[in-house]
Amino acid sequence: MISVDYYLILSAILFTIGALGVLIRRNPLVIFMSIELMLNAANLAFVAFGRSWEIAKGEPFFNGQIFVFFVIAVAAAEVAVGLALIVEIFKTKKNINIDEMNSLKG
Amino acid sequence: MVITNYYLPITQMVAMTSELLVFLVLSLVAIASALGMLFSRNTIYSALFLVLNFITVAVFYLMLGAPFIAMSQITVYAGAIMVLFLFVIMLLGAENLTSSPTQAMPWQKPLAFILALTLTVESVYLIFARAKLDTIITAPDAATNSMENLREMAMTLFDKFLLPFEITSILLLVAMVGAIVLAKKEKAGSKS
Amino acid sequence: MHLSETIISLAPWLVFAPLTGLLINLIFGRRFSEKTVGTVASLASGAAFVVSVLLAYSVAINHGEVMRWRLAEWIHIGTLNLDWTFRIDSLSTTMMLVVSGVGTLIHIYAIGYMHEDVRFKHQEGRFARFFIFLNLFIAAMMILVSGDSYLMLFVGWEGVGLCSFLLIGFWFEMDTLGRPSWANSDAGNKAFIANRIGDFGFLIAAFLMFWNFGSLQFDSVFAGANSLSAINSPLTVAITLFLLLGVAGKSAQIPLYVWLPDAMAGPTPVSALIHAATMVTAGVYLVARSAPIYATAPAAQYLVAMTGAITALFAATIAVGQYDIKKVLAYSTVSQLGFMVAAVGMGAYTAGMFHLITHAFFKALLFLSAGSVILGLERGHHHLARHYENPKGKKKEVKSHGHDEVFDPGDMRNMGGLRKTMPVTFWLYIVGTLALAGIFPFAGFWSKDEILLDASLHFTSIYWLLTVAAFFTAFYMGRQIWMVFFGESRTEAAAHAEESPKVMTLPLVVLATLSVIGGGLNLPFDGFHNLGHWLEHTLGEVESLPLDLTVAGVSTLLALTAIFISWLLYGRTPLQAGQPDPLKKPLGFLFTGMENKWFVDEGYFAVIITPFKKLSQFLADVVDWRFWHDFVHDTLIVGTYNWLSLIALDRYADQKGIDAFANWLGAATQWISENVRKVQNGFVRSYALAVMLGVVLILGYLIFK
After folding, report:
1. How far apart are CA C662 and CA C675, in angstroms?
2. Which of B42, C164, C468, C675 is the most buried (most CB within 10 A)?
């Protein structure tokens, strides 16, 4: 019997791992991928909640899935732009160590 | 029949247990792939681990009765986005990124681990102890995976969520334009 | 009755006629000629005289009944109701007649006198001002004598005090000889201040009256005084003694007489009018009017009488040693006032009033004649000066000085032999002297004799004092006559003295006539006590005494003896120029005392005025300036304030306290910002870490909520 909170815990763990990835890794591409992982975890939570609502109400409920749809679209757009940026940065700096990009320091 | 008496609960248990087992196995795979993505030295391996993670999550979507999302996850996420990632990784030759000899912030790593652990513990506690969630997720029936359902979902999408839909399309357009602009070769004398 | 009511309604004109003259001269005085100004003033005074005559007539036909005429309501507060009411009875009409009659004659005299006064420098408006003041004086004196309450009397009292000040100090920027000096204004101040001390006494008496009797109106006060059963009750004694203080001030008795000799600094008509005939008699009038109160306090009466008697003798001794013609007359006035005050003090109100009237006649005569003498000398002096300066005239050897040197025309030592050059004045003066000395049948004899008679019957000590004073009176007047009119001229100016014009001598003739026949007012024979009967209506039963030959004989004998002695000393061997007074050697230090008025002024200065000045200087310098200003204000207050603001507040509170805090705030902000800036280290991962930290904290908060 899978309760909805199992899915949520899984989502939480995935999210945490993604966050850890953002914090630890110095390769911006990996950081990006960790962000994708976080988004993914959120999507999972959305769908799980949508499903639980559907079960509780007894009638079909699509809002959770639709939201995930949008999230995916946005993630795609974001990746496109972000990767273009990274490419740009690489062109100038020849290096994509994120710790090297600290010229905005105060 | 004794065997029959024991059979139903057992089958039920087996059925239950098999559901749970599948879930557990898949979860482990998901977490392991996530961790793998996290700790891989090679960026390509990280991407591939992430793809695995996405596929696993797609299976989860199927279990949760969201077939369309599962498919779009595989197609878009794992298929397009991750491929893009791989393109860029290979373009930049970042599969073997040499880490700088000196760590910029040595204190950051331990602190990050501690925080991540804290966050996990907090989340688990909140979900289990505070949130009164006891809905049992049952496997979706045939109706869920039918075209009828899909049509209804599409109707909801284009009906109630029309505005976000349109905006999202604009967003995609903008992203496209942005990406092209960013990747464009600079001419001498134009913007820096 | 109807007629007298009409006449009574004229009573306000006593005051308003002189006021009208005053106003006319005030507004138009500068455009009028001197004669016009003087005529206007004299007519105003004469109008007052006419009204007085009418009022006296109405009193007579009403058999002395007291009549009142209310002019205006004045004070109506609570139980105090005081109006400006004219009281027409025999006493007030007597005074009115004297004041306005003698006053008018003096107005006429002054027209001629002021023009020739050495101090008259033809300043514009000065001539008119004199007559304005004279009219003001007449008006004030009328208010005084016609008032129906002590309050109205006091208004007039103050008014004549003011006029006295104004007129004494008329030539306020000069001294008696015309040199720039403070002397004249000082004399005016002295008069006013001495009078003020007397006024204080009067006021205290008035307060006591109001407090105890509830009114200041004469009849109410008298009724109240009579209702007090005890004789010599402390209240009436207090009232009468304070009134005595007022009398001492106004009528120049001891100890406040000192202003009157100095008042000779004023023009001679002023001396005659105010300081001989009218103002100084206000005190005598006051006592006469307050007779019912004095009757209840015999102790006070005795004191009044003694004051008068002692003053009479004291002043007479001073007069013996004076050289200025007007000063002799001034002390003579003080002495005669002493006679009057003694008389009313003894209760002999008729005698006192009688002497007041006759004294007004002959003293005014004497003063005005003295003025004539002074001017005569001045004329002689100017004649000499013209002579001396004019080379074409007969060059005579000038014994006396030219016009530049100071020449005092009032000093008797500069006179002599004037009977030849100023005969009219001489005979007038003789009449006045004989009247004053009390020689039969002149007016002075009758009035003085009555006083002596009354004294001899009731108060022997006073009788002796007054008799000795009478002796001295005759002596110094004789001395004056011999020194001024007989012998040879001691100066060239005296030799060339000229007689005065008719405008001056005619009024004197009138006064001389009155001095001769004035005795008829109250002859001590049955049926001839006219004044006594007249005043009886107001003053109650009057003791009408027949002639006592003993008293009369003694006084006449003494007077003649005195004149004889004076002839021996001054007449037989006339005084030469530069020769000291014959009395100097025999009397020695006594004469020095007489000459220097017994050093009374010096005494006052030493005892009162100099310590007072020293005290005020001390208060001003030490207490006010050094203590209050320098110490309390500068050191304490300003110093404390400065300390407070500069040191306490500025240095400590502001600089060390607030500035330090403000600076600390800035420094703290700077430190904070410097350190917070380090958060922006540019590392994305640290930013992400911060976000993570935030999430963890929020979740923690949600857990623990």
Report:
1. 20
2. C164
